[in-house]
Write a structure and sequence with these properties.
19 strands, 21% strand, Beta-Lactamase, alpha+beta, 52% helix, 629 residues, elongated, 15 helices
Amino acid sequence: MALHNTTKDKSVQSIIARQHWVSIGAIVLAVLLMVAVIVVVLFDNNDQLHSNIDHLLLPILGLVAAVTLLFGVHMFSKSERNAQSLRESEQRLRQFIGTIPGGVVVVDREGGLIYANTPARELLGEELLATPLYLQSTHQVYPTELLPVTRALQGESSVVDDVEVHRDDKTILLEMRTSPIRDAENKVEYAVAIIFDITQRKQTEGELHFQRDLFEKMVAVARATTTNPALEPTLKNALEVLLDITDAEHSNLLLADPDGVVLYTMLEHGSPLRVERKGSVNPIMDNGLAGWVYHHLEPALIPDVLQDERWLSLPNGEYSVRSIAMVPILLDGAPLGVMGVSHHQPDQFHSDHIKFLQAAADQMALALRNTRVYEEERRLAEELTRAREVSEAAYRSKSMFLAKMSHELRTPLTVIMGYSDMLLDYSKQANLTIIQPQLVKIQQSTSYLHRLINGILDFSEIEAGRMELIPEKFTVAELVQVAIEEANSIAEKSGNTLVVECDVGQVMMKTDFQHLHQILDNLLDNACKFTDQGIVTLKAVHEKDASGDWMCFMVSDTGSGISSEQVHKLFQAFSQVDANLLRRTEGAGLGLAVSRQIARMMGGDITVVSQVGKGSTFTVRVPCELSLG
Protein backbone atom coordinates (compact mmCIF):
# COMPACT_ATOMS: atom_id res chain seq x y z
CA MET A 1 0.00 0.00 0.00
CA ALA A 2 1.52 3.32 -1.09
CA LEU A 3 1.97 6.04 1.48
CA HIS A 4 0.79 9.50 0.30
CA ASN A 5 0.78 11.80 3.24
CA THR A 6 0.80 15.33 1.86
CA THR A 7 -0.66 17.52 -0.91
CA LYS A 8 2.88 18.19 -2.10
CA ASP A 9 3.44 14.47 -2.66
CA LYS A 10 0.24 14.30 -4.72
CA SER A 11 1.30 17.24 -6.93
CA VAL A 12 4.72 15.62 -7.53
CA GLN A 13 3.00 12.42 -8.62
CA SER A 14 0.81 14.34 -11.10
CA ILE A 15 3.86 16.06 -12.59
CA ILE A 16 5.69 12.74 -12.95
CA ALA A 17 2.64 11.23 -14.63
CA ARG A 18 2.41 14.14 -17.12
CA GLN A 19 6.14 13.91 -17.85
CA HIS A 20 5.77 10.22 -18.46
CA TRP A 21 2.90 10.64 -20.92
CA VAL A 22 4.55 13.56 -22.72
CA SER A 23 7.72 11.51 -23.23
CA ILE A 24 5.71 8.61 -24.61
CA GLY A 25 3.78 10.93 -26.95
CA ALA A 26 6.99 12.54 -28.22
CA ILE A 27 8.58 9.18 -28.90
CA VAL A 28 5.45 7.99 -30.72
CA LEU A 29 5.36 11.20 -32.78
CA ALA A 30 9.06 10.80 -33.69
CA VAL A 31 8.41 7.23 -34.79
CA LEU A 32 5.48 8.36 -36.95
CA LEU A 33 7.61 11.06 -38.60
CA MET A 34 10.31 8.55 -39.32
CA VAL A 35 7.80 6.21 -40.91
CA ALA A 36 6.53 9.07 -43.04
CA VAL A 37 10.04 9.84 -44.30
CA ILE A 38 10.60 6.21 -45.17
CA VAL A 39 7.29 6.05 -47.10
CA VAL A 40 8.13 9.15 -49.11
CA VAL A 41 11.50 7.76 -50.04
CA LEU A 42 10.08 4.39 -51.07
CA PHE A 43 7.29 5.79 -53.25
CA ASP A 44 9.12 8.59 -55.05
CA ASN A 45 7.62 8.95 -58.71
CA ASN A 46 10.40 11.18 -60.06
CA ASP A 47 8.00 14.01 -60.67
CA GLN A 48 10.12 17.13 -60.86
CA LEU A 49 7.83 19.11 -58.67
CA HIS A 50 7.44 16.34 -56.13
CA SER A 51 11.10 15.64 -56.33
CA ASN A 52 11.91 19.20 -55.34
CA ILE A 53 9.39 19.10 -52.54
CA ASP A 54 10.68 15.78 -51.29
CA HIS A 55 14.25 17.02 -51.30
CA LEU A 56 13.10 19.98 -49.20
CA LEU A 57 10.66 18.13 -46.87
CA LEU A 58 12.57 15.01 -46.06
CA PRO A 59 15.40 16.72 -44.18
CA ILE A 60 12.91 18.79 -42.20
CA LEU A 61 10.84 15.72 -41.29
CA GLY A 62 13.98 13.83 -40.31
CA LEU A 63 15.16 16.71 -38.17
CA VAL A 64 11.76 17.07 -36.45
CA ALA A 65 11.62 13.30 -35.88
CA ALA A 66 15.11 13.33 -34.37
CA VAL A 67 14.36 16.31 -32.10
CA THR A 68 11.03 14.80 -31.05
CA LEU A 69 12.72 11.48 -30.28
CA LEU A 70 15.41 13.18 -28.21
CA PHE A 71 12.80 15.20 -26.35
CA GLY A 72 10.74 12.07 -25.64
CA VAL A 73 13.77 10.16 -24.37
CA HIS A 74 14.77 13.12 -22.20
CA MET A 75 11.27 13.46 -20.70
CA PHE A 76 11.05 9.73 -20.09
CA SER A 77 14.43 9.73 -18.33
CA LYS A 78 13.37 12.75 -16.22
CA SER A 79 10.09 11.11 -15.22
CA GLU A 80 11.96 7.98 -14.16
CA ARG A 81 14.38 10.05 -12.07
CA ASN A 82 11.48 11.88 -10.42
CA ALA A 83 9.70 8.58 -9.75
CA GLN A 84 12.86 7.16 -8.17
CA SER A 85 13.26 10.28 -6.03
CA LEU A 86 9.63 9.96 -4.92
CA ARG A 87 10.15 6.30 -4.03
CA GLU A 88 13.26 7.19 -2.01
CA SER A 89 11.39 10.00 -0.26
CA GLU A 90 8.58 7.60 0.55
CA GLN A 91 11.10 5.07 1.90
CA ARG A 92 12.68 7.73 4.12
CA LEU A 93 9.26 8.72 5.37
CA ARG A 94 8.52 5.09 6.19
CA GLN A 95 11.81 4.85 8.08
CA PHE A 96 10.99 8.06 9.97
CA ILE A 97 7.55 6.78 10.90
CA GLY A 98 9.17 3.53 11.99
CA THR A 99 11.17 5.42 14.63
CA ILE A 100 8.03 6.82 16.27
CA PRO A 101 7.53 4.89 19.58
CA GLY A 102 3.91 4.15 18.93
CA GLY A 103 1.33 3.30 16.34
CA VAL A 104 0.64 5.60 13.37
CA VAL A 105 -2.66 5.59 11.48
CA VAL A 106 -3.60 7.80 8.51
CA VAL A 107 -7.18 8.08 7.24
CA ASP A 108 -8.63 10.16 4.43
CA ARG A 109 -11.45 12.66 4.63
CA GLU A 110 -14.03 9.89 4.07
CA GLY A 111 -12.58 7.91 7.00
CA GLY A 112 -10.88 5.34 4.80
CA LEU A 113 -7.61 3.83 5.97
CA ILE A 114 -4.60 5.14 4.09
CA TYR A 115 -1.77 3.81 6.22
CA ALA A 116 -1.13 1.95 9.50
CA ASN A 117 2.26 0.83 10.81
CA THR A 118 2.99 -2.42 12.64
CA PRO A 119 2.68 -1.05 16.24
CA ALA A 120 -0.74 0.32 15.35
CA ARG A 121 -1.87 -3.08 14.11
CA GLU A 122 -0.48 -4.71 17.28
CA LEU A 123 -2.42 -2.29 19.46
CA LEU A 124 -5.69 -2.15 17.51
CA GLY A 125 -5.64 -5.49 15.72
CA GLU A 126 -5.72 -6.21 12.01
CA GLU A 127 -9.21 -4.75 11.66
CA LEU A 128 -7.86 -1.38 12.82
CA LEU A 129 -10.71 1.10 12.27
CA ALA A 130 -13.28 -1.60 13.01
CA THR A 131 -11.82 -2.30 16.46
CA PRO A 132 -14.17 -0.88 19.16
CA LEU A 133 -12.70 1.72 21.52
CA TYR A 134 -13.98 2.24 25.08
CA LEU A 135 -14.00 5.01 27.62
CA GLN A 136 -11.44 4.14 30.27
CA SER A 137 -12.74 2.17 33.31
CA THR A 138 -16.40 2.45 32.19
CA HIS A 139 -16.91 -0.43 29.73
CA GLN A 140 -18.79 2.14 27.57
CA VAL A 141 -18.06 2.48 23.84
CA TYR A 142 -16.25 5.72 23.08
CA PRO A 143 -18.76 8.16 21.46
CA THR A 144 -18.04 8.51 17.73
CA GLU A 145 -18.30 12.29 17.77
CA LEU A 146 -15.66 12.44 20.53
CA LEU A 147 -13.17 10.09 18.90
CA PRO A 148 -9.84 11.86 18.32
CA VAL A 149 -9.78 10.84 14.61
CA THR A 150 -13.28 12.24 14.10
CA ARG A 151 -12.24 15.51 15.72
CA ALA A 152 -9.10 15.62 13.52
CA LEU A 153 -11.19 15.21 10.34
CA GLN A 154 -13.20 18.18 11.61
CA GLY A 155 -10.01 20.23 11.77
CA GLU A 156 -9.25 19.90 15.50
CA SER A 157 -6.01 18.63 16.99
CA SER A 158 -6.41 16.71 20.26
CA VAL A 159 -4.62 14.62 22.87
CA VAL A 160 -6.62 12.14 24.98
CA ASP A 161 -5.53 9.43 27.45
CA ASP A 162 -8.91 7.97 28.42
CA VAL A 163 -9.16 5.36 25.65
CA GLU A 164 -8.96 1.63 26.18
CA VAL A 165 -9.17 -1.35 23.88
CA HIS A 166 -9.99 -4.93 24.85
CA ARG A 167 -7.86 -7.60 23.19
CA ASP A 168 -7.08 -11.20 24.09
CA ASP A 169 -8.85 -10.97 27.48
CA LYS A 170 -6.76 -8.00 28.52
CA THR A 171 -7.34 -4.27 28.63
CA ILE A 172 -4.88 -1.90 26.94
CA LEU A 173 -4.95 1.75 27.95
CA LEU A 174 -4.17 4.16 25.10
CA GLU A 175 -3.10 7.73 24.57
CA MET A 176 -4.04 9.17 21.17
CA ARG A 177 -2.57 12.32 19.57
CA THR A 178 -4.36 13.37 16.38
CA SER A 179 -3.86 16.21 13.87
CA PRO A 180 -5.52 17.19 10.57
CA ILE A 181 -3.53 17.50 7.29
CA ARG A 182 -4.85 20.14 4.90
CA ASP A 183 -4.53 20.60 1.13
CA ALA A 184 -3.59 23.75 -0.79
CA GLU A 185 -7.12 25.07 -0.29
CA ASN A 186 -6.83 24.58 3.50
CA LYS A 187 -9.36 21.78 3.42
CA VAL A 188 -8.82 18.73 5.67
CA GLU A 189 -7.63 15.92 3.43
CA TYR A 190 -6.20 13.45 5.96
CA ALA A 191 -6.16 12.78 9.70
CA VAL A 192 -3.03 11.38 11.37
CA ALA A 193 -3.23 9.59 14.72
CA ILE A 194 -0.24 8.60 16.85
CA ILE A 195 -1.14 5.95 19.45
CA PHE A 196 0.82 5.01 22.62
CA ASP A 197 0.31 2.12 25.03
CA ILE A 198 0.12 3.81 28.48
CA THR A 199 -1.05 0.79 30.45
CA GLN A 200 2.14 0.60 32.53
CA ARG A 201 2.20 4.35 33.07
CA LYS A 202 -1.40 4.36 34.25
CA GLN A 203 -0.71 1.47 36.59
CA THR A 204 2.28 3.33 38.05
CA GLU A 205 0.24 6.51 38.40
CA GLY A 206 -2.52 4.52 40.07
CA GLU A 207 -0.05 2.95 42.49
CA LEU A 208 1.45 6.35 43.30
CA HIS A 209 -2.02 7.77 43.83
CA PHE A 210 -2.89 4.83 46.06
CA GLN A 211 0.31 5.24 48.07
CA ARG A 212 -0.29 8.97 48.47
CA ASP A 213 -3.90 8.33 49.44
CA LEU A 214 -2.79 5.60 51.82
CA PHE A 215 -0.25 7.93 53.41
CA GLU A 216 -2.86 10.66 53.90
CA LYS A 217 -5.27 8.16 55.41
CA MET A 218 -2.57 6.76 57.68
CA VAL A 219 -1.81 10.28 58.88
CA ALA A 220 -5.50 10.63 59.71
CA VAL A 221 -5.45 7.31 61.58
CA ALA A 222 -2.23 8.24 63.42
CA ARG A 223 -3.76 11.58 64.41
CA ALA A 224 -6.89 9.82 65.60
CA THR A 225 -4.94 7.29 67.67
CA THR A 226 -2.70 9.88 69.33
CA THR A 227 -5.28 12.55 70.15
CA ASN A 228 -6.22 10.84 73.41
CA PRO A 229 -3.97 8.28 75.14
CA ALA A 230 -6.89 6.53 76.89
CA LEU A 231 -8.12 3.26 75.37
CA GLU A 232 -11.78 3.93 74.62
CA PRO A 233 -11.37 7.41 73.04
CA THR A 234 -8.48 6.06 70.94
CA LEU A 235 -10.58 3.20 69.56
CA LYS A 236 -13.58 5.42 68.89
CA ASN A 237 -11.49 8.01 67.03
CA ALA A 238 -9.88 5.33 64.86
CA LEU A 239 -13.22 3.75 63.94
CA GLU A 240 -14.67 7.14 63.01
CA VAL A 241 -11.73 7.73 60.67
CA LEU A 242 -12.27 4.31 59.06
CA LEU A 243 -15.85 5.27 58.25
CA ASP A 244 -14.80 8.57 56.70
CA ILE A 245 -12.10 7.21 54.42
CA THR A 246 -13.64 3.91 53.28
CA ASP A 247 -17.24 5.06 52.71
CA ALA A 248 -18.35 2.13 54.85
CA GLU A 249 -21.56 2.17 56.85
CA HIS A 250 -20.09 0.52 59.94
CA SER A 251 -16.65 -0.01 61.37
CA ASN A 252 -15.94 -2.43 64.17
CA LEU A 253 -13.10 -3.58 66.37
CA LEU A 254 -12.63 -6.58 68.63
CA LEU A 255 -9.81 -7.20 71.12
CA ALA A 256 -9.05 -10.64 72.51
CA ASP A 257 -6.49 -12.37 74.70
CA PRO A 258 -4.03 -15.00 73.34
CA ASP A 259 -6.66 -17.72 73.90
CA GLY A 260 -9.22 -15.86 71.80
CA VAL A 261 -11.36 -14.77 74.75
CA VAL A 262 -13.02 -11.48 73.89
CA LEU A 263 -11.86 -8.62 76.06
CA TYR A 264 -13.44 -5.64 74.35
CA THR A 265 -15.55 -4.90 71.27
CA MET A 266 -16.71 -1.64 69.75
CA LEU A 267 -19.08 -0.77 66.90
CA GLU A 268 -18.85 2.77 65.59
CA HIS A 269 -22.12 4.65 66.10
CA GLY A 270 -22.99 1.97 68.63
CA SER A 271 -22.22 1.66 72.32
CA PRO A 272 -19.13 -0.30 73.45
CA LEU A 273 -19.81 -3.98 74.06
CA ARG A 274 -18.03 -5.39 77.10
CA VAL A 275 -17.15 -8.95 78.09
CA GLU A 276 -20.54 -9.28 79.73
CA ARG A 277 -22.03 -10.01 76.27
CA LYS A 278 -20.14 -13.29 75.92
CA GLY A 279 -23.28 -15.08 74.75
CA SER A 280 -23.32 -13.12 71.49
CA VAL A 281 -19.60 -12.46 71.05
CA ASN A 282 -18.00 -15.84 71.68
CA PRO A 283 -19.78 -17.65 68.80
CA ILE A 284 -18.10 -15.19 66.43
CA MET A 285 -14.68 -16.13 67.77
CA ASP A 286 -15.51 -19.84 67.65
CA ASN A 287 -17.22 -20.10 64.28
CA GLY A 288 -17.48 -16.64 62.73
CA LEU A 289 -15.37 -14.50 60.40
CA ALA A 290 -13.67 -12.58 63.23
CA GLY A 291 -12.42 -15.81 64.76
CA TRP A 292 -11.17 -17.04 61.38
CA VAL A 293 -9.21 -13.81 60.78
CA TYR A 294 -7.91 -13.84 64.37
CA HIS A 295 -6.69 -17.44 64.34
CA HIS A 296 -5.44 -17.57 60.72
CA LEU A 297 -3.75 -14.15 60.96
CA GLU A 298 -5.03 -13.40 57.44
CA PRO A 299 -7.28 -10.65 56.06
CA ALA A 300 -10.74 -11.46 54.68
CA LEU A 301 -12.54 -9.71 51.82
CA ILE A 302 -16.13 -10.88 51.33
CA PRO A 303 -18.07 -9.31 48.43
CA ASP A 304 -21.30 -10.96 49.63
CA VAL A 305 -21.65 -12.59 53.05
CA LEU A 306 -24.55 -14.69 51.75
CA GLN A 307 -22.02 -16.60 49.66
CA ASP A 308 -19.45 -17.14 52.45
CA GLU A 309 -19.98 -19.66 55.24
CA ARG A 310 -17.49 -17.88 57.52
CA TRP A 311 -19.97 -15.09 58.16
CA LEU A 312 -22.08 -15.65 61.26
CA SER A 313 -25.07 -13.35 61.77
CA LEU A 314 -25.76 -12.37 65.36
CA PRO A 315 -29.23 -12.93 66.78
CA ASN A 316 -31.16 -9.67 66.98
CA GLY A 317 -28.37 -7.97 65.04
CA GLU A 318 -28.37 -4.17 65.17
CA TYR A 319 -27.60 -3.79 61.44
CA SER A 320 -27.51 -5.81 58.20
CA VAL A 321 -24.31 -6.71 56.35
CA ARG A 322 -23.73 -7.87 52.78
CA SER A 323 -20.09 -6.94 52.13
CA ILE A 324 -17.25 -6.78 54.62
CA ALA A 325 -13.47 -6.33 54.80
CA MET A 326 -11.61 -7.43 57.93
CA VAL A 327 -7.94 -7.69 58.96
CA PRO A 328 -6.07 -8.94 62.05
CA ILE A 329 -4.39 -6.52 64.47
CA LEU A 330 -0.85 -7.84 65.03
CA LEU A 331 1.90 -6.64 67.34
CA ASP A 332 5.28 -8.38 66.91
CA GLY A 333 3.48 -11.22 65.14
CA ALA A 334 1.02 -11.87 67.98
CA PRO A 335 -2.72 -11.19 67.45
CA LEU A 336 -4.39 -8.50 69.55
CA GLY A 337 -7.75 -8.57 67.81
CA VAL A 338 -9.45 -7.75 64.50
CA MET A 339 -10.87 -4.65 62.84
CA GLY A 340 -13.06 -4.21 59.80
CA VAL A 341 -15.65 -2.25 57.84
CA SER A 342 -19.01 -3.35 56.45
CA HIS A 343 -21.85 -2.24 54.16
CA HIS A 344 -25.40 -3.39 53.61
CA GLN A 345 -24.80 -3.57 49.82
CA PRO A 346 -22.62 -6.29 48.20
CA ASP A 347 -19.35 -5.62 46.34
CA GLN A 348 -18.49 -2.42 48.21
CA PHE A 349 -14.85 -3.22 49.05
CA HIS A 350 -11.79 -4.29 47.08
CA SER A 351 -8.13 -5.17 47.57
CA ASP A 352 -7.09 -1.55 48.12
CA HIS A 353 -9.39 -1.40 51.15
CA ILE A 354 -7.61 -4.47 52.56
CA LYS A 355 -4.23 -2.78 52.06
CA PHE A 356 -5.44 0.31 53.84
CA LEU A 357 -7.09 -1.63 56.65
CA GLN A 358 -3.90 -3.62 57.22
CA ALA A 359 -1.87 -0.43 57.41
CA ALA A 360 -4.46 1.06 59.78
CA ALA A 361 -4.35 -2.13 61.87
CA ASP A 362 -0.57 -1.81 62.20
CA GLN A 363 -1.04 1.76 63.38
CA MET A 364 -3.77 0.59 65.75
CA ALA A 365 -1.43 -2.04 67.21
CA LEU A 366 1.10 0.64 68.05
CA ALA A 367 -1.66 2.79 69.51
CA LEU A 368 -2.87 -0.12 71.63
CA ARG A 369 0.64 -0.66 72.93
CA ASN A 370 0.89 3.05 73.72
CA THR A 371 -2.48 3.05 75.48
CA ARG A 372 -1.43 0.02 77.49
CA VAL A 373 1.75 1.83 78.48
CA TYR A 374 -0.35 4.89 79.30
CA GLU A 375 -2.79 2.85 81.37
CA GLU A 376 0.10 1.18 83.18
CA GLU A 377 1.77 4.53 83.82
CA ARG A 378 -1.52 5.94 85.05
CA ARG A 379 -1.97 2.94 87.33
CA LEU A 380 1.56 3.37 88.66
CA ALA A 381 0.95 7.10 89.11
CA GLU A 382 -2.21 6.37 91.07
CA GLU A 383 -0.33 3.84 93.20
CA LEU A 384 2.46 6.36 93.76
CA THR A 385 -0.12 8.97 94.71
CA ARG A 386 -1.71 6.61 97.19
CA ALA A 387 1.74 5.65 98.50
CA ARG A 388 2.66 9.32 98.84
CA GLU A 389 -0.58 10.00 100.69
CA VAL A 390 0.12 7.07 103.01
CA SER A 391 3.70 8.28 103.47
CA GLU A 392 2.55 11.81 104.18
CA ALA A 393 0.00 10.49 106.65
CA ALA A 394 2.73 8.40 108.28
CA TYR A 395 5.01 11.41 108.35
CA ARG A 396 2.32 13.52 109.94
CA SER A 397 1.79 10.76 112.49
CA LYS A 398 5.53 10.60 113.11
CA SER A 399 5.71 14.37 113.48
CA MET A 400 2.80 14.33 115.92
CA PHE A 401 4.42 11.45 117.81
CA LEU A 402 7.80 13.19 117.99
CA ALA A 403 6.24 16.47 119.02
CA LYS A 404 4.34 14.70 121.76
CA MET A 405 7.34 12.60 122.79
CA SER A 406 9.48 15.73 122.83
CA HIS A 407 7.33 17.02 125.62
CA GLU A 408 6.46 13.73 127.28
CA LEU A 409 10.09 12.50 127.41
CA ARG A 410 12.00 15.70 127.95
CA THR A 411 9.88 16.82 130.90
CA PRO A 412 10.42 13.72 133.09
CA LEU A 413 14.05 13.45 131.93
CA THR A 414 14.70 17.00 133.02
CA VAL A 415 13.19 16.21 136.44
CA ILE A 416 15.20 12.98 136.75
CA MET A 417 18.42 14.75 135.71
CA GLY A 418 17.74 17.52 138.22
CA TYR A 419 17.03 15.15 141.11
CA SER A 420 20.01 12.93 140.25
CA ASP A 421 22.34 15.95 140.28
CA MET A 422 20.84 17.10 143.57
CA LEU A 423 21.11 13.64 145.18
CA LEU A 424 24.69 13.26 143.96
CA ASP A 425 25.64 16.59 145.49
CA TYR A 426 23.87 15.68 148.74
CA SER A 427 25.58 12.25 148.89
CA LYS A 428 28.93 13.93 148.50
CA GLN A 429 28.13 16.40 151.28
CA ALA A 430 26.77 13.62 153.53
CA ASN A 431 29.64 11.33 152.60
CA LEU A 432 27.21 8.65 151.42
CA THR A 433 29.76 6.89 149.29
CA ILE A 434 27.74 3.69 149.09
CA ILE A 435 25.10 5.24 146.80
CA GLN A 436 27.30 7.57 144.79
CA PRO A 437 28.17 5.01 142.03
CA GLN A 438 24.47 4.30 141.45
CA LEU A 439 23.68 8.02 141.28
CA VAL A 440 26.53 8.56 138.79
CA LYS A 441 25.10 5.77 136.54
CA ILE A 442 21.65 7.40 136.75
CA GLN A 443 23.17 10.73 135.79
CA GLN A 444 25.11 9.23 132.84
CA SER A 445 22.10 7.24 131.58
CA THR A 446 19.73 10.18 131.70
CA SER A 447 22.31 12.38 129.98
CA TYR A 448 22.77 9.74 127.23
CA LEU A 449 19.00 9.40 126.81
CA HIS A 450 18.63 13.18 126.66
CA ARG A 451 21.25 13.43 123.88
CA LEU A 452 19.63 10.53 122.02
CA ILE A 453 16.18 12.14 122.10
CA ASN A 454 17.65 15.48 120.99
CA GLY A 455 19.42 13.75 118.10
CA ILE A 456 16.22 12.04 116.92
CA LEU A 457 14.23 15.27 117.17
CA ASP A 458 16.94 17.25 115.35
CA PHE A 459 17.08 14.64 112.57
CA SER A 460 13.30 14.77 112.22
CA GLU A 461 13.31 18.56 112.01
CA ILE A 462 16.10 18.56 109.39
CA GLU A 463 14.29 15.92 107.35
CA ALA A 464 11.11 17.99 107.42
CA GLY A 465 12.98 21.21 106.66
CA ARG A 466 11.71 22.79 109.87
CA MET A 467 14.98 23.32 111.72
CA GLU A 468 15.60 27.01 112.33
CA LEU A 469 19.02 28.63 112.80
CA ILE A 470 19.19 31.60 115.15
CA PRO A 471 22.35 33.70 114.68
CA GLU A 472 24.00 35.37 117.69
CA LYS A 473 27.37 36.95 118.30
CA PHE A 474 30.07 35.18 120.31
CA THR A 475 33.82 34.66 120.30
CA VAL A 476 35.55 31.47 119.25
CA ALA A 477 37.02 31.19 122.74
CA GLU A 478 33.55 31.12 124.31
CA LEU A 479 32.47 28.29 122.01
CA VAL A 480 35.65 26.24 122.56
CA GLN A 481 35.46 26.62 126.35
CA VAL A 482 31.89 25.30 126.54
CA ALA A 483 32.72 22.39 124.24
CA ILE A 484 35.83 21.39 126.25
CA GLU A 485 34.02 21.55 129.59
CA GLU A 486 31.42 19.02 128.44
CA ALA A 487 33.99 16.76 126.75
CA ASN A 488 36.32 16.53 129.77
CA SER A 489 34.20 13.97 131.62
CA ILE A 490 34.00 11.66 128.55
CA ALA A 491 37.76 12.01 127.95
CA GLU A 492 38.54 11.13 131.56
CA LYS A 493 36.28 8.09 131.41
CA SER A 494 38.26 6.69 128.41
CA GLY A 495 41.63 7.70 129.84
CA ASN A 496 42.24 10.19 127.03
CA THR A 497 44.08 13.48 127.16
CA LEU A 498 42.16 16.45 125.76
CA VAL A 499 44.34 19.05 124.01
CA VAL A 500 43.13 22.49 122.80
CA GLU A 501 44.94 24.57 120.15
CA CYS A 502 43.16 27.89 119.76
CA ASP A 503 45.13 31.00 118.82
CA VAL A 504 42.09 32.76 117.37
CA GLY A 505 39.93 32.94 120.47
CA GLN A 506 39.06 36.61 119.96
CA VAL A 507 37.63 36.10 116.48
CA MET A 508 33.93 37.07 116.45
CA MET A 509 31.35 34.82 114.91
CA LYS A 510 27.69 35.49 114.19
CA THR A 511 25.94 32.19 113.73
CA ASP A 512 23.79 29.68 115.65
CA PHE A 513 25.80 29.07 118.83
CA GLN A 514 23.77 26.12 120.11
CA HIS A 515 23.88 24.13 116.88
CA LEU A 516 27.58 24.81 116.28
CA HIS A 517 28.25 23.72 119.84
CA GLN A 518 26.17 20.59 119.16
CA ILE A 519 28.41 19.76 116.17
CA LEU A 520 31.62 20.11 118.22
CA ASP A 521 30.07 18.14 121.08
CA ASN A 522 29.23 15.24 118.69
CA LEU A 523 32.73 15.22 117.16
CA LEU A 524 34.50 15.34 120.55
CA ASP A 525 32.17 12.69 121.95
CA ASN A 526 32.92 10.35 119.03
CA ALA A 527 36.66 10.96 119.26
CA CYS A 528 36.70 10.14 122.99
CA LYS A 529 34.49 7.06 122.64
CA PHE A 530 36.58 5.47 119.87
CA THR A 531 39.98 6.29 121.45
CA ASP A 532 41.39 4.53 124.53
CA GLN A 533 44.35 5.97 126.45
CA GLY A 534 45.08 8.35 123.61
CA ILE A 535 45.03 12.01 122.71
CA VAL A 536 42.00 13.99 121.44
CA THR A 537 42.82 17.43 120.01
CA LEU A 538 40.51 20.36 119.23
CA LYS A 539 42.13 22.94 116.95
CA ALA A 540 40.55 26.23 115.75
CA VAL A 541 41.86 28.01 112.61
CA HIS A 542 40.66 31.28 111.06
CA GLU A 543 40.75 31.42 107.23
CA LYS A 544 40.04 34.14 104.69
CA ASP A 545 39.48 33.77 100.95
CA ALA A 546 37.57 35.42 98.12
CA SER A 547 34.28 34.00 99.46
CA GLY A 548 34.70 35.52 102.97
CA ASP A 549 35.80 34.66 106.53
CA TRP A 550 35.74 31.05 107.64
CA MET A 551 36.34 29.17 110.88
CA CYS A 552 37.74 25.65 110.80
CA PHE A 553 37.39 23.40 113.86
CA MET A 554 39.49 20.20 113.57
CA VAL A 555 38.91 17.32 115.98
CA SER A 556 41.73 14.76 115.83
CA ASP A 557 42.25 11.50 117.72
CA THR A 558 44.81 8.74 117.94
CA GLY A 559 42.22 5.97 117.86
CA SER A 560 41.77 2.94 115.62
CA GLY A 561 41.01 4.96 112.48
CA ILE A 562 38.59 4.17 109.64
CA SER A 563 39.25 2.37 106.34
CA SER A 564 38.53 4.14 103.05
CA GLU A 565 35.78 1.59 102.29
CA GLN A 566 33.96 2.54 105.52
CA VAL A 567 34.29 6.32 105.29
CA HIS A 568 31.23 6.64 103.01
CA LYS A 569 29.04 5.16 105.78
CA LEU A 570 30.07 7.75 108.39
CA PHE A 571 27.43 10.34 107.59
CA GLN A 572 24.55 7.93 106.97
CA ALA A 573 21.76 8.11 109.52
CA PHE A 574 21.40 5.20 111.98
CA SER A 575 24.63 3.52 110.86
CA GLN A 576 28.06 2.85 112.28
CA VAL A 577 31.09 1.70 110.34
CA ASP A 578 31.73 -1.41 112.45
CA ALA A 579 29.19 -3.65 114.16
CA ASN A 580 31.78 -4.49 116.86
CA LEU A 581 32.10 -0.81 117.70
CA LEU A 582 28.33 -0.56 117.84
CA ARG A 583 28.24 -3.22 120.53
CA ARG A 584 31.14 -1.56 122.40
CA THR A 585 29.87 2.02 122.34
CA GLU A 586 26.62 3.82 122.88
CA GLY A 587 24.74 5.78 120.22
CA ALA A 588 22.06 5.51 117.56
CA GLY A 589 24.32 6.54 114.69
CA LEU A 590 22.71 9.95 114.23
CA GLY A 591 25.41 12.29 115.54
CA LEU A 592 27.53 12.67 112.42
CA ALA A 593 24.54 12.66 110.07
CA VAL A 594 22.84 15.45 112.03
CA SER A 595 26.10 17.38 112.41
CA ARG A 596 26.84 17.40 108.65
CA GLN A 597 23.26 18.53 107.85
CA ILE A 598 23.52 21.38 110.34
CA ALA A 599 26.94 22.42 109.00
CA ARG A 600 25.56 22.52 105.45
CA MET A 601 22.58 24.56 106.61
CA MET A 602 25.11 27.06 107.99
CA GLY A 603 26.81 27.23 104.60
CA GLY A 604 29.69 24.91 105.40
CA ASP A 605 30.47 21.21 105.59
CA ILE A 606 32.24 18.45 107.52
CA THR A 607 35.04 16.38 106.00
CA VAL A 608 37.11 13.53 107.39
CA VAL A 609 40.62 12.15 106.86
CA SER A 610 41.42 8.82 108.49
CA GLN A 611 44.08 6.13 108.49
CA VAL A 612 43.60 2.71 110.03
CA GLY A 613 45.66 2.30 113.22
CA LYS A 614 46.65 5.98 113.40
CA GLY A 615 43.41 7.87 113.98
CA SER A 616 41.05 10.31 112.30
CA THR A 617 40.61 14.05 111.81
CA PHE A 618 37.16 15.60 111.34
CA THR A 619 37.11 19.20 110.04
CA VAL A 620 34.14 21.53 110.43
CA ARG A 621 34.36 24.55 108.11
CA VAL A 622 31.63 27.20 108.48
CA PRO A 623 31.39 30.90 107.61
CA CYS A 624 32.02 33.30 110.49
CA GLU A 625 28.72 35.02 109.74
CA LEU A 626 25.58 33.08 109.03
CA SER A 627 23.68 34.12 105.90
CA LEU A 628 19.94 33.53 106.20
CA GLY A 629 19.24 34.45 102.57
